[in-house]
Inverse folding.
């Protein structure tokens, strides 16, 4: 199973480090990273394997959200199925 | 591999365009609670609801965090109580309403529907007594929702019930006069009521439904509105395609949540309701969609056509996205719950007559409309009869949820709070329809109901 982590906000030093440190802490393996600009915001997208999470999915999502708030960016963790369902027939 | 733009589109829809799941509603049959002892009936109903739905809120909260999308309401619908409590007195029904309220509080759900009766051709004793108890029940509870089906295309219109409902609405308005007659916001009069509608105040768990079921109502006016804005000055075919594509995506999320909630709760999945449901929040308005199509103000000429296009395109896009579609499935136009509708009504561009015309091309009816407190019961019955006729003749669901706000008149507004919003008091005709309403009896079913 995979989850998609999106980080959006004003670009600043250490955003990737913040998100990837949390992934390492909770056992989420990063399989892909890309970044782009969405409107005036920086947007980073990480695809992570969540089969070996050492906590439950909701707690993982909450921790990343909190880490984002501490760094002034919006971090969302969403199960990949929501994207697969919406964008694939 | 997922496409970056697709991911960002989903995130934008949720973050900026108010995409959410409007409601996950668990339908619960209460037929196995029937007892000739009122106290035992009450206890069995409370126990069945609190046992069947004990994990509903918890599972919905897990899903919100897993998929990153808000599930705004968690709700329950039950078998119409007029059947389950057929032997009860009006006082007995009020006690049942309080039991439903206690169950709703215990479970943390904001509304519970099914304080209902179906009387399209005539009323059983339980239905008569339940209808009599509605004003008291809606005054003594805050989460219980009531509905009465007074007509079907097959049966015609029970005008005795239409007459009585005008009086019941007035009584409810009076009893809840300290809160802008809010009791009436929890009471809907229907034609062709669906048996699997997840939306309040009209949700009931129908006779042909399984013991328990999960039905989901999607939302998304903000998403449709943004897509139309982005499409710019295109022709109508492109406009309809734009709505279809976005409706597909919205509905797919509803389908995912419905299937996943049902699986985690161990309950069958029923339907996804494709209705676009607005909220009073900015950017979550059906009126704004119509205005983005090119209307200066909702209610002006062209509004019915714009709404017809929208409603049809939403269904066409949504139907392929879900394995089972049901409920009301159409754009909602509740006045008090839609910021654009409130503005248009305050300006006087959106009138009761125009709203009635709009309901011929969408679901669900004259919804959350505040009218003067001194409107007579007969006039309210006339409003109901007109709206119900549209449903009966066009073989569709229509409904009336009007609030004659006690002590207030045109120029003032009513405040209901939360998702129910606020509404300017809209004028009604002053000429009487009392002699018409007083005829009594039934309006026969239309000729095209004879399809066999």
């Amino acid at each position: 199973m995979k989850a998609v982590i999106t980080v959006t906000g004003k670009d600043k030093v250490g955003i990737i480090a913040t998100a990837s440190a949390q992934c390492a802490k909770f056992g989420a393996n990063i399989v892909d990273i890309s970044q782009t600009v969405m409107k005036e915001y920086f947007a980073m997208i990480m695809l992570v394997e969540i089969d070996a999470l050492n906590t439950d999915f909701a707690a993982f999502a909450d921790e990343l959200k909190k880490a984002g708030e501490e760094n002034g960016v919006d971090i969302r963790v969403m199960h990949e199925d929501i994207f697969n369902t919406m964008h694939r027939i | 591999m997922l496409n970056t733009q697709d991911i960002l589109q989903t995130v934008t829809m949720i973050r900026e365009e108010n995409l959410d799941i409007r409601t996950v509603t668990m339908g619960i049959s209460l037929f196995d609670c029937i007892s000739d002892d009122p106290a035992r009936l009450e206890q069995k109903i409370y126990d069945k609801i609190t046992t069947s739905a004990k994990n509903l809120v918890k599972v919905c909260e897990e899903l919100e965090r897993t998929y990153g999308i808000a599930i705004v309401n968690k709700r329950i619908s039950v078998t119409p109580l007029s059947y389950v409590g057929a032997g009860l007195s009006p006082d007995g029904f009020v006690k049942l309403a309080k039991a439903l309220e206690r169950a709703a509080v215990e479970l943390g759900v904001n509304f519970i529907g099914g304080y209902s009766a179906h009387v399209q051709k005539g009323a059983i004793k339980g239905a008569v007594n339940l209808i009599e108890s509605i004003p008291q029940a809606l005054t003594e509870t805050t989460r219980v929702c009531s509905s009465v089906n007074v007509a079907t295309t097959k049966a015609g219109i029970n005008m005795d019930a239409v007459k009585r409902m005008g009086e019941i609405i007035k009584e409810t308005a009076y009893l809840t006069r300290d809160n802008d007659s809010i009791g009436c916001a929890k009471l809907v009069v229907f034609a062709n009521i669906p048996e699997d509608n997840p939306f309040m105040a009209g949700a009931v768990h129908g006779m042909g439904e399984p013991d328990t079921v999960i039905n989901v109502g999607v939302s998304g006016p903000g998403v449709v509105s943004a897509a139309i804005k982005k499409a710019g000055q295109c022709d109508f075919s492109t406009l309809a395609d734009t709505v279809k594509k976005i409706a597909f995506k919205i509905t797919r999320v509803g389908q995912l949540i419905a299937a996943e909630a049902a699986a985690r709760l161990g309950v069958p999945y029923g339907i996804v309701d494709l209705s676009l449901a607005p909220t009073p929040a900015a950017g979550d308005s059906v009126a704004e969609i119509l205005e983005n199509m090119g209307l200066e103000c909702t209610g002006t000429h062209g509004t019915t056509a714009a709404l017809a296009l929208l409603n049809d395109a939403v269904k066409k896009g949504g139907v392929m996205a879900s394995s089972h579609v049901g409920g009301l499935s159409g754009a909602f136009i509740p006045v008090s719950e839609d910021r654009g509708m409130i503005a248009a009504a305050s300006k006087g561009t959106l009138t009761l007559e125009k709203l009635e015309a709009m309901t011929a091309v969408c679901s669900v009816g004259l919804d959350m409309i505040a009218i003067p407190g001194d409107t007579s019961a007969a006039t309210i019955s006339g409003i109901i009869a007109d709206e119900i006729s549209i449903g009966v003749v066009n073989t569709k669901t229509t409904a009336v949820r009007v609030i004659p706000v006690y002590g207030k008149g045109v120029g003032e507004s009513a405040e209901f709070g939360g998702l129910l919003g606020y509404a300017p008091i809209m004028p009604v005709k002053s000429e009487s329809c009392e002699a018409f309403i007083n005829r009594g009896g039934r309006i026969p079913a239309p000729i095209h109901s004879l399809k066999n």
About this structure: Strands of chain A lie at 2-9, 29-38, 41-49, 74-79. The first helix of chain A runs from residue 15 to 26. Chain A has a mean pLDDT of 89. Chain A has one domain: 2-87.
